[in-house]
Sequence to fold (169 residues):
Amino acid sequence: MSDKRIVILNHQQIQQKLDRIAYQILEDNFDEPEIVIAGIMPRGNFLAARLKKILDKIAPFKNHLINIELDKFSTSLHAQADVEIVACSNKVVILVDDVLNSGKTLAYGFGVFRDIPLKKLRTVVLVDRNHKNFPIATDYSGIALSTILKEHIEVVLSEDGGEDVAYLR
Fold:
């Protein structure tokens, strides 16, 4: 893998993508009294918090933020959330991650909610790489890229201590 990094989204573009996604979420859930935005750690939760902040300004419904930590390398679902998942019962859940690669992380994210009734479950990713091994489709994405398998997407956010940017390596 090359050390050469190509900027695919800069700070302003990331903000524009998140603004657009927030408006799409609003349009899709306008009649809901509340929604749950579930961010998959480590960067999905940062993006989820940003979406919540935007929705707090533009949406008539209440937004609740939860953080989900998954063991992405396990062969079975091992997850923890910072609230009881049953609190999401009969609500709309928006599952957020930074990059969709194989689909395994989002598939595990779906599994977190498998035992409770939901109104609907939607997915958000900043970058969709189009290399799915699992039958996962995103409902809202910032950008979709067709990359080769050996290329990598690196998302750096200010919460990580850097400047907002997404690289192709």
